[in-house]
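Researcher: Hi, I'm a grad student and pretty new to this. My advisor asked me to get structures for two proteins we've been looking at. I'm not sure of the right format, so I'll just paste the first sequence and hope you can take it from there.
Model: That works fine. Here's the first sequence with its structure tokens right after it:
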Amino acid sequence: MFKIDEYPEIKKAYREHNRLKRIVYSLEKKIRPDDKASEKLYDESFKKWDEFDRNEFALIIFKTFKDIEPKLYHRFDDCFVKWEEVFSDKWEELDEYKRNDLLGLVLEIGYGRYWLPDKYYDDKPILGCLPAPPTHKKDWGFGFKD
């Protein structure tokens, strides 16, 4: 799991992310079959959660790492890429997919396409019970040209 305690702004946003998620999940349980009106609160809450994640949470992650520019591991292509090859230096230029990629850096390992270097993660079980999946084991210089 991401070492969230070392980044107070991300930790605060993560708490809000989880609060909104709990609201959405509780409202989802209240949806009745064949009753569109029962979906209204759920839809509104889901939209609010989604907007927070894409516009506020992702921005906090972007601001935290844009100056550090850590190397990233692309888990599907099994290669390493430079931060600036993935993310623009201007927030406004990041589309929906790039904002999701930012969220994937700090949410549970396996959520997104990219991972930060191992030093940003610990071996704590996900959600307090599931063991984290193994991350890449390659040397960060492998397949990467500085």
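Researcher: Oh nice, that was easy. Here's the second one.
Model: And its structure:
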Amino acid sequence: MWYRLILISEWFGEMNERYKLIRDFNRESKLAFISGSVPTLLEAKITKGDSAFRHEFSKFLGGGLRIKALTGTELSRQEMEEIGAIVLANEGMVRKLIVLGWDTLEIHDSIGAFGLKWKLKNYAHTGGLLNARK
């Protein structure tokens, strides 16, 4: 019986990792903005995500990772693409996001309703060995 309780508590450890990643991102973003090393304050949060982007590890109602640029003005599409490209270029980070249950990366500004989204699985470069055998 005790083993089962320990196992259940370990399952929730993954949720702690997700929230820790969000907290760490937001803390580091604030520090970078305050120090002047970045021109825009970014804020991350968990969203529903896009159900069309779901994968084996997706969380049921928390598959989206939204990064919001708190600029006070609307961002252009190119500016949002640049923010997304920084995250997507880090393959290790993309894989970590996938393992922690995210399937969608969303970039938004703080003013407009327009945002961009990417299917994280397309940027993880997984399945190479499996695909080579086909």
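Researcher: Is there anything I should tell my advisor about the second?
Model: You could mention this: The chain has one domain: 2-133.
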